[in-house]
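Usage

Read records sequentially. Each one opens with the input sequence:
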Amino acid sequence: MPIVKVPVIQKFGIISTKHHRELQQKLLEKTKETLEEKSTGHRRPLEVTEEFIKQFNDAEVLEDQERMLDAARKILLRCKRRSGIETKGSGNHVNLHLAWTELILMAQCKGKVQEDALDMLLISMDQAEFQQDHIPLLFYIAESVLYRICCDAPQKLYLLSCEVKLSKLGFLAFLRLYTFHLIGQLQHFEEQKKRLSTYIKALPECEATYKPFPTVLSSVHVMLKVGEIICDLEYCMETKTILQKQPVSTDKLSLNSGAAEIDPFLWHCLLLWQHIQNNSTNYHDIIKHLLLLKEHLHQENWLDSLLALFILGEAAKIEISCLRILLELGCNLMSNLQEQAWQVISVYTSVLADICMHGTTSDIKKHAYIGFQSESTLNDGSNKGSLNGLLHFNPPNTSESKDQLNRIVSYCTVYNLVKLCYELQWDLSRDGLRNAIWKALDQRKIVERDSQVIDAMKIAEAELNGPSNPFISLRAMSPSASGNLAFFQHVGCRLANALAQQFLPPVVPYIPTTRKPFQRQIPRKPADVIEHSMEKKAAHLSLRKEQLCEEPSLPLPVHFITRTNMALEKVIEDQWAKEMTIRMKEAKEEMVTEQQEKQKKEEEHFTEIMKKRQQKLKKTSKPYELLT
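and closes with the structure output:
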């Protein structure tokens, strides 16, 4: 019988049997510890998990608190880089999905970490572009905000700064969701809508808590209104006069069957913004038509009016004529103040303050505060629709409901002026405007008898004078040194970009290619012409005749090379002049062709809109014509 030798492989080298067993036992214990860590959820120390948040909030020993706080600071610094706060959300290092996820989880921590996480999330969401892959995360953020509001609001006896920031975060998240709804990109998120509807139904119970604070209450109503629309719910506040239904015009505009219909007022604000962005001067008819549609600011679906004000505010930052129309619309809004439109007033005051802070010219910033003087308001000194006009807004002979609306106007105006004054303290070149605002606020504080309006000053000061955020350095971008988001600076432009891609035709600006500038030749004097003719005649002398010259001006070789170079330069100049003439002719023909194609596209676009209008309204008359 053959003998089979089985090879024995000793993985641990030549060691004793006892040492071999001890080593195996250590490896087994290490493997068990690894499996236990995975089963209990222990992960990397800088990974944001529910266990990390629980350990942070439950830490009682000073050593544990310092260790958890150090880990939280490192996470926030990482979130700052991933969110691209200092680069306005751009760069290869930016990962908004991961940054927002970690920040909304870190907002569950207690104390200053919660405040800093909310500050970062607010700034990042204000300046981020609209991207479809953000929709699931926006639903998650919306649910988190509503959960905190519904659970914590009834238990609080006073307003906390984190609640103000949560309301702003909810405002931005729901505003983005409503924009995606208008574009038609929320059709496949039924599960998220179902979960969100549970919190939406509970949200009206929190209205009484925030009723003394109109700016926070306005954000709550925006969340409620958007939630009801995208979740297709009935109105949860049937007994509330704030959200009473009013008849509204069915004149809507839509260019895609998957998208929702938008209000004509919003569409014209979007069109005006596009003209301003592309440096077009043919927008005066659009402005005229906006005045004809001013009553749309009082409609039932005031969400479209909020979007329109943000977009019109972006145009007003650049073009002063757009600011003038914005103030005229504000005057009309104040003259026809209605209960269902008070949320529009809250956003209007915030938009004006943002223009006063971030307008492109000093005149725009100034007129956003004092308004435009005219013959009718020469002695008044300010326009009703300006911030100064709203500060002194006090219509006589008002009813009890009107008094409440007037109180809301005063509250929102004072609240935003205090924040504006705080932001201006970092700009020494604008001390005059800041002093004027402080003087007006001091005068108002002396004569003000309404405690709610006085509280607006205290709330704004407490919100901005809180502890500074060490993880945000905005001095290069904004005068704010605290890191708090005083105004929504970028959201209007981001909304306009997203909606314009859906509801407006693309605009390709003409960019001329770089060419060598054509230099006009200066006409010669008669003496120069005679001299040039003689030089030209001398150039045709034969070499033998030149040798016979008694006193040549230059040695023979040098004079010959000079004549040759002059002749060559003359040929090059003539050829370049011909080429420039041909290029200018081609460029002119190309420009005419592009203008004709652009005009043809705009006419086809306008014809399509008119056909859809005729199908819906069954009218053949033209309500307006726009010059583009």
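Summary fields computed downstream for this record:
- The CA atoms of residues 213 and 490 lie 25 Å apart.
- Residues 556-617 form the longest helix (62 residues).
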